[in-house]
Amino acid sequence: MAIDPRGADLKRLLAEDPGGPVVMLNLLRFAEDGLESYEEYARLLREKFLARYGAEIIYAGTGSTVLVAEDGQSWDAVVIVRYPDRAAFSRMVADPEYQEVTRFRTVALTEAVLQATVPWS
Q: 85 and 17 in contact (C-beta within 8 Å)?
């Protein structure tokens, strides 16, 4: 299961760019004892990268009561981050300093969804 975006994923993200801001949906399933590692990733993300790339966390929260889902479709956490555009997200992911920090995210997760969204008119 993929945890981190790959080069081909980022190329597709940019190729399908409708322009304007992008809100990234993060659905997270933690490894046993992974929450602490993810919290370190989130701290470093806030301290070093969000302002640098014009991003902001819109929402972060723990998954709770599942009302409609098949078995295995519940998530441990949801994080929603807004970037000024897809290029800013891509630049952040390519930043060598950011790439060093992603190890905390990678070891923290067993499964993830990272999906760009397009606002409705």
A: yes
